[in-house]
């Protein structure tokens, strides 16, 4: 399973989102710190889920990181999150 697939599966399982985009932006970071040949080091995630309603921005980010788990979070160099209810 790719990291993209793992991110998607973890977030779908945890939040049942109404919208989910997982974009591997690694190629845009070629030559920068953390770039890994083959990609899957820099991601942008857009997620919309009712469970985020009423949560602060920090709480939403913590929830996503918890859903991804420490192994996946540490395997990713950069993770941009756009989270809303």
Roughly what is the average pLDDT, rounded to an integer? 91
Instruction: Specify the CATH architecture.
Output: 2-Layer Sandwich
**Spans of at least 5 consecutive residues with low confidence:** none
Beta-strand fraction estimate: 15-25%
Given this structure, which CATH class is correct? Alpha Beta
The CATH topology label is GMP Synthetase, Chain A, domain 3
Task: Note the total helix count.
Answer: 2
- The secondary structure category is alpha+beta
Please summarize the sheet with the most strands: 3 strands, mixed
**Name of the CATH superfamily:** BolA-like
Determine the N-to-C terminus distance.
28 Å
Radius of gyration: 13 Å
Share of helical residues: 25-40%
- Shape assignment: elongated
Describe this protein with a few key phrases.
single chain, 85 residues, 3-stranded mixed sheet, 2 helices, 24% strand
Mind explaining what this structure looks like?
38% of the residues lie in helices and 24% in strands. The protein has 85 residues and is an alpha+beta fold. The protein has a single domain, classed as 2-Layer Sandwich (GMP Synthetase, Chain A, domain 3). The protein has a three-stranded mixed sheet, with helices on one face. The longest helix is centred in the C-terminal third of the chain and has 19 residues, at 57-75. The mean pLDDT is 91.
């Amino acid at each position: 399973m790719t990291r993209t697939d793992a991110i998607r599966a973890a977030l779908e399982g945890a939040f049942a989102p109404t919208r989910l985009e997982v974009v591997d932006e690694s190629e845009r970071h070629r030559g920068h710190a953390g770039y890994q040949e083959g990609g899957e080091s820099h991601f942008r995630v857009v997620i919309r889920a009712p469970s985020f309603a009423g949560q602060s921005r920090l709480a939403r980010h913590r929830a996503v990181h918890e859903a991804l788990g420490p192994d996946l979070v540490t395997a990713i160099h950069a993770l941009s999150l756009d989270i809303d209810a």
